[in-house]
């Protein structure tokens, strides 16, 4: 157990998510910059405010040892909502498409990012995205997801509510994200690199 029972930790497949539970998904390294304490806290406030009992938060990825105690303390403070946070640790690449595709939405609101590949992966699986509105993410996501201030509890909760209660909007963002992701193929990347090199000759 990674968090001595405060977070349920088990093998890395989507089959470990409780049956009949909808889930939101986050994939990142567990470290301070990833804003996980705010993300988890606002999730618990969101389900408490709206009396939601059919949704869990699935958190995937490795961790920084120096950050674990702080995150553990935050999870413990959630009282009856701590069991709504499920950590599945490392995920094999072959399992990721299913986890993205079956999630209600994907959350990635780091303090800052150089590029942010996970939101793009989520969009390519038609998974609606909530991400930050700074660094490179606005250029990646454009209008194909909800972009918020990383340090705003209010905006996190409102974004969760928008996706949870407005399924038509959620479906629309899934479609937009999928179409947007097509702009970021390896072929396009290679062609752009060739153009840059040719222009510098």
N-to-C SSE string, H for helix and E for strand: EEHEHEHEHEHEHHH
Structural class: alpha/beta
Report strand %: 5-15%
Percent of residues in helices: 40-55%
CATH superfamily: Glycogen Phosphorylase B
CATH-defined topology: Rossmann fold
Highest CATH level, the class: Alpha Beta
Count of the domains: 1
Tell me how many strands there are.
7
Strand order of the largest sheet: 1-4-3-2
Q: How many DSSP H or I helices?
A: 8
Stretches where pLDDT falls below 50 for ≥5 residues?
A: 1-15, 189-194
Describe the structure.
- The strands form two sheets. A four-stranded parallel beta sheet has the order 1-4-3-2, with helices on both faces. The protein has a three-stranded parallel beta sheet with strand order 5-6-7, with helices on both faces.
- Residues 1-15 and 189-194 have low confidence and may be disordered.
- The protein is an alpha/beta fold and 201 residues long.
- 44% of the residues lie in helices and 14% in strands.
- It has helices at residues 36-49, 65-76, 96-102, 117-124, 137-141, 153-165, 167-181, 186-199, and strands spanning 8-9, 22-27, 55-60, 85-89, 106-108, 129-132, 146-148.
- It is built from eight helices and seven strands, in the order E-E-H-E-H-E-H-E-H-E-H-E-H-H-H.
- The protein is globular, with a radius of gyration of 17 Å.
- Helix 1 (36-49) crosses helix 6 and helix 4 (117-124) packs across helix 7.
- The chain has one domain (8-199): Glycogen Phosphorylase B (Rossmann fold, 3-Layer(aba) Sandwich), CATH 3.40.50.2000.
């Amino acid at each position: 157990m990674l968090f001595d029972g405060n977070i349920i930790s088990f093998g890395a497949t989507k089959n470990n998510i409780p049956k009949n539970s909808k889930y939101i998904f986050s994939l990142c390294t567990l470290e301070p910059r990833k804003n996980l304490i705010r993300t988890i806290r606002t999730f618990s406030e969101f389900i408490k405010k709206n009396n939601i009992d059919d949704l869990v938060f699935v958190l995937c990825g490795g961790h920084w040892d120096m950050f674990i105690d702080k995150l553990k303390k935050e999870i413990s403070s959630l009282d009856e909502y701590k069991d709504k946070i499920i950590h599945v640790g490392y995920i094999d690449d072959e399992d990721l498409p299913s986890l993205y595709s079956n999630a209600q939405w994907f959350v990635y609101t780091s303090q800052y990012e150089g590029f942010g590949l996970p939101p793009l992966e989520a969009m390519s699986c038609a998974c609606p995205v909530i991400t930050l509105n700074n660094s490179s993410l606005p250029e990646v996501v454009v209008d194909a997801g909800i972009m918020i201030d990383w340090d705003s509890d209010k905006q996190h909760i409102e974004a969760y509510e928008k996706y949870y209660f407005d399924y038509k909007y959620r479906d629309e963002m899934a479609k937009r994200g999928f179409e947007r992701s097509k702009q970021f193929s390896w072929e396009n990347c290679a062609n752009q690199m060739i153009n840059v090199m040719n222009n510098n000759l």
